[in-house]
DNA sequence: CTATTTGTTTATCC
DNA sequence: AGGATAAACAAATA
């Protein structure tokens, strides 16, 4: 589930808790992988009493800000990082007697019976915790969003040239350049740009026309997915996304309808249209 | 029982 | 040295 747009949607689920203090932190299994590298004891000890003041997301990473304690000179904020991994999600429970389920690994109880819940069935997600006046390095070092002005066509060309021997599919999954792009978004982008996922990245770096097409489709898919998810989660039937896991799915492009192909490329199951994205160009 | 899954990190190989 | 690739991780589902 969680790629760029779904992560943004998950972040907003906790908005109802903005401006309210945490009363209790529930962590049933601090030893699981989700908390690797995190000081769970500090999290439990420091978060109660703190007000959730804002949140932001970049790609698949989220950052929740907790205000300094009232009092002069106090500058220390608490920062909670959340990554959803493969199947994680954020939600809110509003029943006063809510008890965490098997996969509810972090629960922040607030007043009024509200609970902010992080769930993750597969434990591939991650909770990070930081205390200080400034946001943590794992947040500030993230690559700029593909929707930001810092993501440019020339920057894309440089990256693809450096990764020239990687298949395009593998390159698009690299968070150091395309934060938030995951398996289905990468396939959607390549399908729209009419580029075979196994094409070496260097072939696009050296071709202005295909480079421009790829650049624009990265932006378009990221932007449009965000709008669709904000609206009603209904992707138009012209998205490859809706057909990729149908048994014997067909290319949704007007006038095409060819049988979709699937194979492992860049270590992940990849789906493409052999007619629209026919040959590997190098 | 086997194979699969919208992700990242680590080890190993080139 | 830097980059490409496969395995590992965990748990549910088909």
Short description:
This protein has helices spanning 4-13, 40-46, 137-140, 153-162, 168-172, 183-192, 201-205, 208-231, and strands at 22-26, 52-58, 61-66, 77-83, 89-93, 104-110, 115-119, 126-132, 261-265, 268-272. It is an alpha+beta fold and 282 residues long.
List the main descriptive attributes of the protein structure presented here.
DNA-binding; Helicase, Ruva Protein, domain 3; alpha+beta; four-stranded antiparallel sheet; elongated; 2 domains; 282 residues
Describe what you observe in this structure.
- The structure is a single chain.
- With 282 residues, the protein is of the alpha+beta class.
- The chain folds into 2 domains: 4-140, MutM-like, N-terminal (N-terminal domain of MutM-like DNA repair proteins), CATH 3.20.190; 153-272, Helicase, Ruva Protein, domain 3 (Orthogonal Bundle), CATH 1.10.8.50.
- Helices cover 27% and strands 21% of the residues.
- It has helices spanning 4-13, 40-46, 137-140, 153-162, 168-172, 183-192, 201-205, 208-231, and strands at 22-26, 52-58, 61-66, 77-83, 89-93, 104-110, 115-119, 126-132, 261-265, 268-272.
- The strands form 3 sheets. Strands 1-6-7-5 form a 4-stranded antiparallel sheet. Strands 2-3-4-8 form a 4-stranded antiparallel sheet, covered by helices on one side. A two-stranded antiparallel ribbon has the order 9-10.
- It is elongated and about 60 Å long.
- The mean pLDDT is 93.
- It binds a DNA duplex (14 and 14 nucleotides) through helix 6.
